[in-house]
Design a protein that fits this description.
Layout (H helix, E strand, L loop, with lengths): L1 H19 L3 E3 L2 H25 L1 H6 L4 H16 L3 E3 L2 H22 L7
Length: 117
């Protein structure tokens, strides 16, 4: 059940980012759910490997390079999902930051971020 709540929170966050920031475009609610799933899978697989190999750079930049990695992964999801697009690298950065923040807030509101006892 928690997975479904997180997925719904992520899709809602993606729709909200697209609404607030026109450089990120989502054509439909269905595309938002598919894009949220793609972003999650990309972050869990490719993202983990990229973050592992870039650990020294992330240490040197005090973690700021993680923003660039997240923007790249956000953009990468647009290549796999029809109906989800980002207009450029700055839009990917702003979209990734907004998506992460909103998904966290919406997930907290829905109770998807609670740890099981």
């Amino acid at each position: 059940m928690t997975f479904l709540l997180r997925w719904a929170a992520s899709a809602a966050a993606l729709l909200l980012v697209a609404y607030l920031y026109p450089a990120v475009q989502v054509e439909s609610v269905g595309a938002a759910f598919v894009a949220a799933l793609a972003i999650g899978l990309i972050n869990a697989t490719i993202g983990a490997v990229v973050k592992l190999f870039t650990t020294p750079i992330r240490w040197l930049t005090l973690g700021l390079f993680t923003l660039a990695i997240n923007a790249f992964l956000f953009w990468l999801a647009t290549r796999f999902v029809d109906g989800f697009s980002v207009e450029g690298p700055v839009a990917a950065l702003i979209g990734a930051i907004g998506y992460g923040l909103l998904a966290s807030v919406i997930g907290s509101i829905l109770g998807a971020n609670k740890k099981k006892d």
